[in-house]
Amino acid sequence: MTKQKSKGFLAGLGEALEEGLKGLGQSQEPAGGRPEPVTKRVSLIIHNPRVPMQGNARLNKALGWNDPRRLVKDYIADMLEISYGYITYKVVEEIEVDKFPRKVDGFTYDADQFVSAWQARKGFHDPDAVDYLALLDEFRMIDKINDDKIDEFWLFAFPYAGYYESIMAGPGAFWCNAPALAGTDHARKRFIIMGYNYQRGVGEMLENFGHRAESIMKHVYRHKKGDANLWEKFIRHEQANPGRAEVGWMHYAPNSERDYDWGNKRQVLSRWHTWQNFPDLDGEPRLVDSRDWGEGDIRAHHKWWFRLLPHTTGSTGGISNNWWEYVVDPNTVP
Amino acid sequence: MSTQSSKSRIVLLIVALLAIALLVWLGLRLMNSDGNDEVETPATVQCPAATPEFFSVEPVTSPTNDLSQVITVDLGNGEMITITTESGTFTAPFDVFPKEIEIDLLPDTTHNLIVQGRVREISQGECTYGGYMLETTRDRNGDPLVIEQARP
Lengths: 334, 152
Prior knowledge:
Chain A is built from 10 helices and 12 strands. Chain A has helices spanning 9-28, 59-62, 68-82, 111-120, 132-138, 141-146, 202-220, 230-234, 298-307, 324-328, and strands at 2-3, 38-47, 50-51, 57-58, 87-97, 152-157, 166-169, 191-197, 268-270, 286-288, 311-316, 319-322. In chain A, the strands form 4 sheets. A 5-stranded mixed sheet of chain A has the order 5-2-6-8-7. In chain A, a hairpin with a 2-residue loop joins strand 11 (311-316) and strand 12 (319-322). In chain A, helix 7 packs parallel to helix 9 (298-307). Chain B has one helix at residues 2-32, and strands at residues 38-39, 55-57, 68-75, 78-85, 88-93, 99-104, 110-112, 114-119, 122-124, 127-129, 133-136, 146-148. In chain B, the strands form 4 sheets. A 4-stranded antiparallel sheet of chain B has the order 5-4-8-11, with no helix packed on it. Chain B has a 3-stranded antiparallel sheet with strand order 2-3-6, with no helix packed on it. The N and C termini of chain B lie far apart (120 Å).
């Protein structure tokens, strides 16, 4: 279905009004400054049950996986660094849960059963998806949002926990690398529940957040078409837009030929460096390759990518020049 | 006469204000779509983007006098492992985990290993995942996968 709008005088009037309003916005908040930093309060919920067949060790230790607290510490430091000091995540509540989360059909692993499945790499429960409404209820998530105690929730668990990497809840929630969480309209505001995995590293945590950022920025720019859609410009890469690469997205660096191909050595023309000067995107493309973003290291690539997200004051086309604002707080998304 | 004239001016003023308000409203509506065509596309299935599967290579032994070495690789939902180096290409199905693959080594040669893992394609509802290749030249500690073979 296609809706056509008439052009001509009225379109010109619209453009003139937009320019005028943009000018107003810029005069109120000059571009190029440093946005006021924000702090967000996190509830950290770690499902890390004890394993009887492994001497009651916690699951992460029994299987030689990472320490979730260490991951959180490093991740928070990375976020502060790559946002140029804009976002400080503060864990104000930590809950370690000695059981497995309930699946959407009511199933719950016991620890020995899960470890056996892991060691055989088969026998995992299907459906894998977790019961989010049960988590909301068990950890009183909506109450904590409504009481203004918590800004977002970070779930931490094992492979096959059934979490989405991120999901948005609350009134007007939208796609956040997962469908909006139904049944949460009674919350006072939108909030995000992240889903991390302590088998993996900080690089994968950044990727989880990166997909959240991609979903939110796509939504922010949903009404912008053509050259006005700076998000679509930002994510251009050689494979999809030959000769017009910019920064790319989580799975595709400017020269990637397939998903996760961050170590590709082929040289392509890209204008990624111009995003360092946003909103001034003038500049000729340069030959680039994986040496610019860590030669295949997931964490290095993702940190490089996040550092290029616009992060200054002012606005362009009615959208903030600080994209972190939207990514960190979905309530700022119109 | 002057009363009539002032009434006419008031009416004209009201009409002008209404016209301006109408134009501003239309202008704002157009601004929201950047004055371009607004296209409503049919709803399509949206699939969550996924992180890559776990892929790890154990550290290699170097230098070595041996003319072969077993390389240990782990891969989530693995299907196939390929190791490419100076002595050839070695491919094996990922049928056990972690997978141990024996590669030949050339005498007095530095071997730079490229390890590739193919992830099995799976479907979850209407979404398809996997079916891609991961590649690394480093072990799980981040060190280069380089083996120096030296004759005893």
